[in-house]
Amino acid sequence: MAGSIRGSGIAEAAAVLPSRALTRGRRWAVLRQAARTRLGPLGAVVTLVAIAVALLAPAISPYDPLKQDLGNTLARPDRAHLMGTDNVGRDVLSRMIWGTRVSLMAGFGSVALAVIAGGMLGLVAGYAGGRTDGFVMRLMDAVLSFPPLVLALALGAVLGAGLGGVVIALGVVYTPTFARLMRGQVLTITAREYVEAARALGAPGWRIAWQHVLPNASAPIVIQASLSVAFAILAEASLSFLGLGVQPPGASWGSMINAGRGYLQQAPWIVFWPGTALFVTVVGLNFVGDAVRDALDPRLRT
Amino acid sequence: MRAATPHGKVHRRDFLYLCALASGTLAPGMSVRPVFAQGAPRKGGTLRVGFYLEASTMDPHFSGSKVDRQIYHNIYEPLLTLDVKLGIKPGLAESWQQPEPKILVLKLRQGVKFQDGTDFNAEAVRFNFNRMKTEPKSVRKGEVASIESVDAVDAYTVRINLRRPDAALLATLTDRAGMMVSPKVAQERGAELERNAKGAGTGPFEFVEWVKDDHLLIKRNDGYWNKQGGPYLDRVRYRPIPDDTVKLQSLQAGEIDVIDYVQPRDVAAVRADKNIVMLDVPSLAAFAYQLNLTRPPFNVKALRQAVAYALDLDQIIKGVWLNVGTPANGPVPPTSWAYDRTIPYIKRDLAKAKAKLAEGGKPSGFAFTITTANIPINVQEAEVIQAQLAEAGMTAKIKLVDAATQLSDGNSKSFDMISYQWSGRPDPDGNIYQFFKTTPGTSLNWSGISNSQIDALLDKTREVSNQAERKKLYSDLTKILQDELPMVYIVHPIEPKAFSPKVQGYEPIPDGMMRFKDVWLKA
Amino acid sequence: MGRLVLRRLLATIPVLLLVTAGVFALIHLTPGDPVDVMMAESVDDSVKATLRRQLGLDQPIYVQYGVWMAKLLRGDLGRSIRNGEPVIENVGRRIRPSLQLAALAMAISLVVATPLGILSAARRNTSVDRFGTTFALFGICMPNFLLALLLIFCFGVKLRWLPISGYMDPLEEGLQGLRSLVLPALTLGLALAAVVTRTLRSSMLDALSEDYVRTARAKGFSESQVIRGHVLKNALIPVVTVLGLQLGTLIGGAVITEYVFALPGVGRLVVDAVFARDYPLVQGVVLLIAIGFILSNLAVDFLYGWIDPRIRYR
Q: Which of C11, C138, C188 is the closest to A3 by Cβ?
């Protein structure tokens, strides 16, 4: 749900535990299956376009996103400025292009942090069991029951308001999701016969983790990650409403929407274009996640 | 609900006339006549007011926030008041004399009662000043620091004995430090007074209730001593609406009748809106940036001057403030008698800026951080300033903070250049003294300036009582401040207020406080 | 069953302890303190120092934590620094609008999502289904402040059908109160509806593929009878789960909606408290929100377990 920066609980509730061992061959089969859906490739294309735009920003941006032109503020879209200008005369299109970097960094950065931190915690909890497991999971529960906006706000105030602070704050917010996921995977997979067999044969724990757990856990984590990235991008936009995130004059889609709010009647393009970019990217990421999930277990196809 | 068109048309004429007045004369002593005085005042109705912040306390002696004052000026009354030219008028005190520089004698108005029925008299005044000086939580201590003691000479005469001459005292008494609270209420209610001010004041309205974060209600005081004019309204309902856009939209949608401030970016649209009436009210406020003199880079005067020369105030006023304000030449606003029109504001001069950079030892520029509040106009202004500074070779980074962090950074002097908004006081002393006087420890002197010449001048402005002399002193101060630059002043904003066309009889006073005594609502 | 409940409840205590430590540490680490904020325009250092002493803010942090915990164990959440009222009263005053908003939002989401979810599943891959899934997608991906902006603009300013700010209690003011909640409830409810539609659709598809459905169809029951009779009941279970999980979020997390619509709810209370560095209020409210979240999770767990015996004893 876009209302909470943590996202809907549905991703967790429907986190799929693969019913069969995900060997390498099976993984490719899943990908091919995902590629066969209509929307999956579409989403992948959108995501790749977004990433490309972010990477190529310096090359494709028509203007310097910071260049002000106080004589030409709030200009309607025209040939010179395809998406108009904002309240200090900066080109909206250029800012949108450069804003892709920030939004994607916020999204991917925070989720990467959460996957690594959560993944490690989940692994440790799942393997160690007993008290360690209990403690780690209690810690994750604590973070989960903390109102996410307050957490992000307070962390932002402590760490300093810039993008780095937001990435860390969101990373913390999403960590429990991945910790739980990973732990669940560890428990299920280590209970399987082939793992017990490997253990009986004397394979060390880390080898088992590497060869069996991680490959099998990758699919649900990828699904969850793609959905979380979408939510993180939305969350960054929400947090910029409260003053966190990229500092001016840097542009992110969220801060552009927030800054453009007061000009909705006079210059709606300031809100419209970044809003659309936000929406399209988030939708694309959702498509990717959905396609992989459907491929994994067709019964849950949405 | 809305006024019918014929009335609307007449409104526009009046309004346009006023606009002509307002835009043409931003000089001191601008006269603003009461707006839309048509027809006979009608008793009744509830005025719905939208403010940007929730009030913090109902006790004027404990209040440190600007929003509280708006409500106080309707339920409490100060000993002295301001007229439209910011001159000092009688309030609860009918007349005053200074037989000696260190004595102030006030003759109080007779027949005034507090809303709880007790009498207003010299004893009450004495009680109030004592309270301000001795209550541990009193925020007024600094304002009444010059008062040694207060005597009740007779039932309606008060003698204030001063520790030192204080030329600014009369102006201070027009605000919270002069507001009289019923001793009976203060004693009986104690700390409760902060949340419940029933019967505590003498003003045209009386406190009814305060539902936190929802609304604050005051009602007409039928026992009000001044039988001329209002109060006409039955009630006034204040609502905190923190979001500027929503606040304006609420007015446009007819959900509220008054808003305290129209953002510059909305001014053009509101002016064109036939369903809203807008008043340009020049204020006492100033927007500025404090520079930190206690550490590099701004401990070097030449570098501070480089910043001042690199800024283009004209561009900022035009592009960010959309001309809803005047460029500032210093801390004294154009609405004040002390304003010196002959001192120009610092004009942009890139050559001089670069020369100052070299003089300060940084010919190729330097980097620093601008700390500013997370409010749209602050952000916009900071971005424009950043671009202007870049043209002179200075690299400024912008750091957005919330109010608490801004205060903390300022108080602890952990900033390079920090934004500062001061709502302004009627006497120039309130806009200057505490910012530039050498003060050890935490104070509003965030820049940390310690200049003996400035100190001496500041003290003199308090001792001298002749206005012309004081004006000259403030001119001297302004010139020195333009050289020393502990603060870079940007603009003295105009604070446009907007009303539904039903609202009649509002008389704006440049201190920005909204007084509803003579306001009435058309049917 | 009772012992299970007790055990689960006890297990939440360490979690809550961690939450208290976390929020305490976090809020005290933020720059600035409540005295700075309250006395922004004051120059008087001695007054500030006195106030700090009175509030116990001059003590080392672990002492402050100990003091707070001791009071907490006695059931005292302390007093807000800003207005001096007990934290409990502050929350009590704000919980009503939040609850009403949450209830209305959930009602809207059910009204919209139930027919949509059912029809999407029943008429799978038809245009209805496509509409339903598209709607669900839009709802999930739409930033809620954007939705709020559009709703305000459309219904509030242009059409003037509904009030755009302020709160009136429907229980006291009836229809007027309800009208003041419609736009914010729509903002939250449509997003929630998107989630519920998805959940319902997928759980319906699940249920529809079960054996007993095939049996029922073979027996000659009409499609709608099949759905009403068996499928719907089972399909609603995950929906209840999701709604239950969202309840906690709705109450403490509808901050931006509350800000934009000027509603005096719990979300805004805690965010304003963070901005004002009102330590006791932040600590108390976060704790209460965490408790609420944990309890609603527990309730959903038990409800789930009670309805579906397969999951009962985990």
A: C188
